[in-house]
Amino acid sequence: DAKTTQPNSMESNEEEPVHLPCNHSTISGTDYIHWYRQLPSQGPEYVIHGLTSNVNNRMASLAIAEDRKSSTLILHRATLRDAAVYYCTLLSSNTGKLIFGQGTTLQVKP
Amino acid sequence: DAGVIQSPRHEVTEMGQEVTLRCKPISGHNSLFWYRQTMMRGLELLIYFNNNVPIDDSGMPEDRFSAKMPNASFSTLKIQPSEPRDSAVYFCASSLYQRENEQFFGPGTRLTVL
To answer: Which of A48, A57, A98, A105 to mutate to test the interface with B (most CBs of B within 10 A)?
Structure first.
């Protein structure tokens, strides 16, 4: 199973954009890139996913490198409620399994 | 929809006792996943089902763990006998099986084995 690598922690100021990086150099051609976040004392929550093209939704944007070996989750205006652990994961279309790494703990300062 | 429902939310038991965790997936979803989360090991996939059939149980730590899905709306994860190292938060998630679909997680069951 391919693995992901993320920084352990990041800080941001409220209402500023946040760019959360992820490396997945061993990604296979059929793996989807998924991002989840986990608020304190809650289960993980889906944020966004993509395969090759950049994606936007109401929560965030996902920028995927051309070689697919890295991606960046973009929160356009961080709020205090965005403080969470963000997981970059790969969904294997062969096995249907999500492989979670250690995630990035995002702190948002007022 | 109420989302994925898990019970109990908290469980405290003594070593050697049997523990049963329960999960009700989102109606209409046909894939169900059991995860375990600890500080040391993070989120680990234990087992998952498609259309009530176990597909991959390679993450189940040992024979003390077993999971069943008797119908599309109910699944159990059983630990017998429980040990202190089983203490963790156990999450159930469900999805509509397609290659790329997102998983919806329940609130988790916090298990403490004394």
So the answer is: A98
**What average pLDDT does range B66-74 have in this prediction?**
96
- Model confidence at B4, in pLDDT bands (50, 70, 90)? very high
B75 within 8 A of B25, measured Cβ to Cβ = yes
Has residue A30 got a pLDDT over 90? no
Torsion of CA A42, A45, A47, A52, to 10 degrees: 130
Partner residues linked to B56 by β-bridges: B48
The three-state DSSP-derived secondary structure of B92-113 is EEEECCCCCCCCEECCCEEEEE
Mean pLDDT of the region B24-34: 95
Report how far residue B87's alpha carbon sits from residue B48's, in angstroms, rounded to the nearest whole number. Answer: 20
What number of other Cβ atoms are within 10 A of residue B65's Cβ? 20
User: Is beta strand A18-23 parallel, antiparallel or unpaired with respect to A70-75?
Assistant: antiparallel
Count Cβ atoms below 10 Å from residue A46 Cβ, excluding itself: 18
Cβ <8 Å between B93 and A43: yes
Residue with tokens 């356009």, as numbered in its chain:
A76
Which residue in chain A is spatially nearest to B31 when comparing CA positions?
A96
Q: Which of B42, B93, B100 sits opposite A32 (nearest CB)?
A: B100
| 8 Å CB contact between B3 and B91 | no
Joined together, the tokens standing for residue B33 give: 């996943």
Q: Is A100 in Cβ contact with B102 (below 8 Å)?
A: no
